[in-house]
Structure formats: C-alpha cells, structure tokens
C-alpha cells in the first residue's frame, strides 16, 4: 500500500461539477491523502490497512511536528491507483501492479473507517470516478508512505 500525504490548509474533490468531499482547516492544517492499493495488498489486507490508517493519523507532519490525531485535524482520502504505475520502460505507464477496483475499494473504505474510529474527521473522493482534486499545500510538505 502506498500513500502520498500532503499538508494542506484546504482541499476538495469534485465529480462532474459536484463537490463530493472537502476539508477546510486553516487553523490546524490537515492532510490530503492519495492512497493506492497494489495487487499484493489485497491478500491479507487488514494489517496493511491498519498500519496505513495509523500512519495517516499519527505521523507528526503537521505544523509544529504534530499529528492529525494530536491536532484534531481533518483528512481528505482519495483513492489513487496511479501510484502503482510502472514508468521504467516506454512512454505509457503500466497499471499491472495496481489492484483491480473491486478489490481495492473495500481496502480504501476500511482505511477511512479506521480513521473515523479514531474520531478523525474524514472526507473522501468517489471511488472509480473521474475526480478533480484541488488543494492549498502548506509548506509545501509532502511525504510518501508505504506499508
């Protein structure tokens, strides 16, 4: 499992002109989490999903080296299969390492549920949709997390 976590003061996802998920957090900051699931991740996925949720919640990457959990900050989770694109050869990425949608969707949903169980405010994109993601990055501060 792979995620790109970006510190933001606001972020939103729209689908066909409709905002389906948004966070606005100029005081605390928040995290835009682009999360990808690989074919390997869907086998015995629960421990990996738990680790990813823990990383998103507990990494001290907000201003002042605090975590989302410590700051009470929100998270916008967006499924991102393209994080598993192979680009070493040719000019067209290969998506063979990305989990198929029907297998990845429950894993992303579980991560969202695990974050919410920690009383973290979580907004989401719409799985499988063509999404427009906008954000105001703070820092800028972006890290890649792999579990």
TrEMBL record:
InterPro entries: Daa-tRNA_deacyls_DTD, DTD-like_sf. Its EC number is 3.1.1.96. PANTHER family: D-AMINOACYL-TRNA DEACYLASE 1, D-TYROSYL-TRNA TYR DEACYLASE. The keyword Nucleus does not apply. This is D-tyrosyl-tRNA(Tyr) deacylase. It comes from the Bacteria. GO terms for molecular function: D-aminoacyl-tRNA deacylase activity. Belongs to the DTD family. It is an enzyme of class 3 (hydrolase). The keyword Hydrolase applies. Keywords: Hydrolase.
């Amino acid at each position: 499992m792979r995620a790109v976590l970006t510190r933001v003061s606001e972020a939103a996802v729209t689908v066909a002109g409709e905002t389906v998920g948004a966070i606005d957090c100029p005081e605390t900051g928040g995290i835009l989490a682009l999360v990808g699931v690989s074919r390997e991740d869907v086998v015995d996925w629960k421990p990996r999903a738990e680790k990813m949720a823990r990383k998103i919640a507990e990494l001290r990457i907000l201003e002042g080296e605090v975590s989302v959990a410590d700051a009470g900050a929100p998270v916008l989770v967006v499924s991102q299969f393209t994080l598993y694109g192979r680009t070493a050869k040719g000019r067209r990425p290969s998506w063979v390492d990305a989990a198929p949608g029907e297998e990845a969707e429950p894993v992303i949903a579980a991560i969202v549920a695990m974050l919410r169980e920690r009383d973290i405010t979580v907004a989401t994109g719409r799985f499988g949709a063509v999404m427009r993601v906008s954000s105001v990055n703070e820092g800028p501060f972006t890290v890649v997390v792999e579990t």
